[in-house]
Structures are given as C-alpha cells and as structure tokens.
Write a structure and sequence with these properties.
mainly alpha
Length: 37
C-alpha cells in the first residue's frame, strides 16, 4: 500500500517537472497580452 502511494507521488512530481515550463510560458504570454491591452 505504502509503496503504491510513493510511486504515485513520484509520478506527480515528475509530471510537475514536465509541466513547469509550459506553466511558465503561459504566464509569460498572459503578461505580454496584458501589456498590449
């Protein structure tokens, strides 16, 4: 049971690492759009 929870946590952390650049880009895009408006 504990082992599967650990595996799930590792997967979530891994996904966050993958998605972080996209979130950063999205935020950057939003700021750029706000500056234009």
């Amino acid at each position: 049971m504990l082992q599967s929870i650990k595996r799930l946590l590792q997967l979530i952390i891994h996904l966050q690492e993958i998605l972080k650049p996209f979130l950063y880009m999205e935020e950057h895009l939003l700021q750029s759009i706000q500056r234009l408006l």
